[in-house]
Amino acid sequence: MHALVKALDDAKHILIIAHINPDADSMGSALAMYTHVLRLHKKVTIFCKTEKMNPALNFLPFIEKVKHNLPTNYDLALSFDCGAIKRLGVEVEGCLVNVDHHVSNENYGEINIIDTTAISTTQVLYDFFTDNDIKLNAKMSTCLFAGLADDSQNFTTDKTNERAFLMAASLIQSGADNALCIKELFKSRSLASIRLKAKMLESARLSCSAKLVSTLVPRSFFEETGAYEVDCEEALHETLELVNVEVAFMLRYTKENRIKGSLRSKNGINMNDLASYFGGGGHVHSAGFVCDGVSLEEIETQVINKLETIL
Ligand SMILES: [Mn+2]
After folding, report:
1. For the chain, which terminal residue's Cβ has fewer other Cβ atoms within 10 angstroms, N or C?
2. What is the pTM of this model?
3. Gap from CA of 81 to ligand 1 centroid (Å)
């Protein structure tokens, strides 16, 4: 933690990186740090490889400052919520500070600030700010709250504990617009996303004595509805709520024509281990991977075979 204070002190131009296809946790922590560095009157660039970011994040303060091209002359880089270095989407030169909470984190930074007990990367950063007596303003508080709310799925996951609620209360005290975060992240949806969800729920299948639910999302689902890829998440979470179901997984194609798997579980069933078998990682209850395969069905069979031995 003190290494980061010194690194920020010494740097002249700070590069802040959110992961590809950023969520509210990665972008929220990146923007909170961006706001802090602005107050230090230092040169700062905030970067994300993905140009077409989820429009649900548009409410985050300073989101319009995000650049999609790397600057050349930075002397310190900070990554937020990136468990693997490939999640940065770019190669970074010089000192890299890796701030994260994934159990699968590869410790790829020169400085690694990893707290796997934290519910969100914004919680890791919140601890850094409070431990170093760095005062939070309203903008920073909203950014930190957004990541907390998003990664806890609106304060409903098993990891949502006293520490999460104390952080929420403290952020609201320092000016976080909690109502805005919840409205934008959980209470605003497009008709396209509802239509996608209907298709996904209709195609969901149970296996392993109804302990496992799988949903395959062919490209046609997106073409027919006009929904974004991120709109898949909600149906995945809802299928996990089925009685008896302990694992929910979803498979879809990426833009690069690879297969993306998303795994969610209850009762401590380890999705990070399963995802790492397919070259990915994440958290115990939530993990993902990207792999190559002939079809979604082929990967589905492989995942079910693996899970049959676990469930
Ligand atoms: Mn996160």
Report:
1. N
2. 0.91
3. 5
